[in-house]
Amino acid sequence: MKHFFILMLLLLGCYNSFAFEYKGVYYRESDGGAIVSKPETGGTYSGEIVIPEEVVCKEYAYEPSVTYHVVGIDENAFEESYGLTKITINAPIKDLKINKCYAQEIVLPQLKSIELENAYISTLDIPSTADDVKLYGCPSLYTLVVPGTVSHLGLSNCSVLGDLVIQESKEKLYLGISDDTPVTDLTISRVVNDNNDYLSSLQNLVNLHLGDNITHLPSLDGKTKLKTVEGNGITIIERETFNGTTSLKTVSFPNLKTIRDWAFKDSGIKSIELPNTLDSIGSSAFCGAKLTNIVLPSSLENVGENAFENCEDLTSLTIKGNTSFERNVFENCSSLSSVSLPNDLESLGEEMFCGCSSLVEISLPHDLKVIPKSAFRNCKALQRAYFNGNVEAIEDHAFEGCSNLQSLTLPTPLKSIGIHAFDDCESMTELVLPNSLEYVGGGAFCGVNLTKLTFSGSLKEWLGINFDYLIIDHDCPEDAGTGYPTDTNPITHAQKFYIGAGLVTDLEIPANVNAVNAWSFTGYRGLKTVTIPSWVKRVGEGAFLGCLLDKVTIQAENLQIDKYGFYVSGWIQEEGIHNVVISKNLKQVTGEGDVPTANAIDYDGTIEEWLNIKFNLKKEMFAIDGQGILRINGKQVNEIIIPEDMTEIHDYQFAGMALSTVYVPKSLKRIGKYAFAWCHDLERVQYSSVKTPASAKKCQSKTDARQFITIGDCAFLMNKKLTDISFAEVVDSIGNRAFYSTAWLDKQPDGMVIIGKSLYEYKGEVSASVAIPEGIICVCSEAFKGQSKLTDVTFPESLEYISDSAFEGCTGITSVEFPEKLQSIGDYAFSQTGLTQINISSNVMRIKGDGAFSKTPIKSVILEDGENELDMNWGMFGSAEIAYIGRPGFFALSGSGLKEVTLGKYVKEIPLDFVCSHYIEKFTILSSIPPVVGREGHDYFSEDTYDNCKLIVPKESLEAYKTAPIWKYFTNVEESEVSGIKNVLTSKDSKSLTYGINGCIATSNGIVIEKKSDGSVRKYVRK
Length: 1023
Prior knowledge:
By secondary structure, the protein is mainly beta. Among the domains are: 92 residues, no CATH class; 220 residues, no CATH class; 108 residues, Leucine-rich repeat, LRR (right-handed beta-alpha superhelix) (Alpha-Beta Horseshoe), CATH 3.80.10.10; 124 residues, Ribonuclease Inhibitor (Leucine-rich repeat, LRR (right-handed beta-alpha superhelix)). Helix content is 4%, strand content 29%. It contains seven helices and 81 strands. The strands form 18 sheets. Strands 13-15-17-18-19-21-23 form a seven-stranded parallel beta sheet, with no helix packed on it. Strands 42-44-46-48-50-52-53 form a seven-stranded mixed beta sheet, with no helix packed on it. It is elongated, with a radius of gyration of 50 Å. It comes from Segatella copri. This is Leucine-rich repeat domain-containing protein. It holds the Pfam family LRR_5.
């Protein structure tokens, strides 16, 4: 019933309301007053209409008129009124909502809310009382000014709205703009929304103006048409704000303090005025931008790495303050031609101007102390660099690739020049180095072409400079084909070298200088003579490498010559050192070789004194390969008569000299390595005293007993005419390649070549087996190398040494029995053979290197009992599964495949390197006292070994092992009768007892030791 009465009241109200017209505008009556309505009977409005505050209604002439206050406008009041041009609203309406209005202009009262939908207005003046404005479909509206009172603004389908101004207010504006709103010019003077992406829909934005109270930039992602941005209140440009905005041309932020990483990266900005409030620029902030010039203000404290990298249009840079720069700040700014640096600038960043290929000159600040790494690398147009003050260090690659840098004067405080600092500065013709210089890095001056090098200090100071050595890691000219890098020292490429005003051609090492530093004169072709006085003890590495000297005089007593000291490459030796003069004061030359190699050697002592000079070198000789003339007191020597009292010819003593005959005395015990190497004219070495001169007979031994001679490595190497060596029968041992490429060796028949007590080599192809004769004590290096058909070798009881690679590659050898006297096995001696088991007697003291038994299928190893330590590396037995270790030594078992290990009674201590990281199945120890282990807590064995390995220890020692460090962690420990293995011999008869390699009676197949009733013992594999 209640709903019925309400409905009736509503119907009566509609019936009683009526429409009337007042001055061309239709109204309808309402409880609150009159409301503008649509004309009756389908009429429309046209032209200009005014909506007053009050309207008068008089339905009939005889009735009194009624005055109404205009309180509203129907939403569809102006629908289809296509001729309407202007609406002026004077009525105090608070809320306005109009749909489909074709008026070009609406004059609004002081209302509170506005909602226009499908309104074809071209201008709209929003009153300062408005709070909520919604414009949906205003396709003719081009400009809109939003007063500060508006708190909510919605814009949609305003298809030509290009200029939007949001006026200042302390209150926040909630703004909603649809994607189809083509605003190009936007002015915002107040805070908008709670988030930062309120402009995301304005894809056509070109110009953005921000008021003083806007301190943070909105997100500008996707603003591909944005050209200018202004904001007096902006203090921070956030990360990536303008990243990729290629349309951007200019910005203005007069109070800016911070530009964060990537802020303008790859943007189109051409100019920006950085204010004196700015204190930091982030990494890659302007990387790839289109800037043409930049001025960094004095307020700027730090610039991040790559900040202006790849700004290819940048032509001018001015830095006004003492700013700190990270690396690569202006790298590859290829158009940068003008750089102005302040005098108080204390540092540059690494690679700061690297690749600035248009930079012609640079004036470095007064306060700059270090030119950092690659600071001006590949500045290919750079011609001049001015050092104005206090530079102490030029770091690595600083000016590398500055191919037009012409001349340089480096300042007095400079102490160090880094590696490749001036590499590839090919136009550099003059260089002045200061006396303060202490260090020059490797390759520092690679590729320079100096006509003049000047050092402002003294010769002593020059000799004190440390010229570092570095393998050049890219294409770089090498000095005179030496094959060694010589580009650290600029003298290598200098035509003339001056110390002060004096041209250096003849060099005598000054007093109080006892060493010539490495690389001091490397490659200097202007040097003609060098004198090494008595006080000099050392010639450093490469000190005179590549110098084409006429004469070297050595007056020193004990001289060390380091690697490449006087090296001159083979193909220019004829142009090299002509004469070496050696004083009789010389007692010893040591080092890695490269003594001065000359056409003639003049010695002012006697042959006896020459023979007493010790050449403890690693390579090279004084004489040019086979051509060097030796003059003793001015007389050329072709025949050498070694005095009868001499016992040794030292290493390199006559290497390379033009000798024909050598007479060696019976007193001689040793011919050193390379002693007569490269003596191409040497035909005969006579073992006798037939030509001993009277002067030598005074010292002749009273006994004629012969000594056995040891011949060192390469002693007669490349003696192509040597046919007669009468001392062969008294040779004791021979070093590697001692007679390589000699006529004597060439004429030896196929088979074993035996010299004295040494088997030198096997000529030709060996048959299946070889028996080395008794009396041989040494099998020389490579004697049987590569003899793959050799299957069996019998060693004599006299054998003591098997040299390096003696049987390397003999794949047919599957087993060997070493004689009891064997003491040493050389590196790779049995490498790549077919050996499956090996027994090393207690006399062997050394197994050399890592490769004596490498790459072999060895499955078992026995090191017989002995108290002496064995010097060897277990790594060569990597495939072994069973091992008996009966003597002490530093054996690292890590990485091997051992399954069973026995330690003999002489193994009292296990070194730290004895590590079995894999699982061992059985571990037997013969010592009643648990061996000492390096330290507690070290992982000597794997967890599987501790938990599952069977540990067998001597009877009555069980408790000792269960409490001993490391051994106490084994959970499966047994005691047994055990013994050692010693003196394993071979015998084929008599009754026997059989033991396993753990020393117990053998109960299973495998490697066993058979002890016979006659006391002999043999080892074999029982199957």
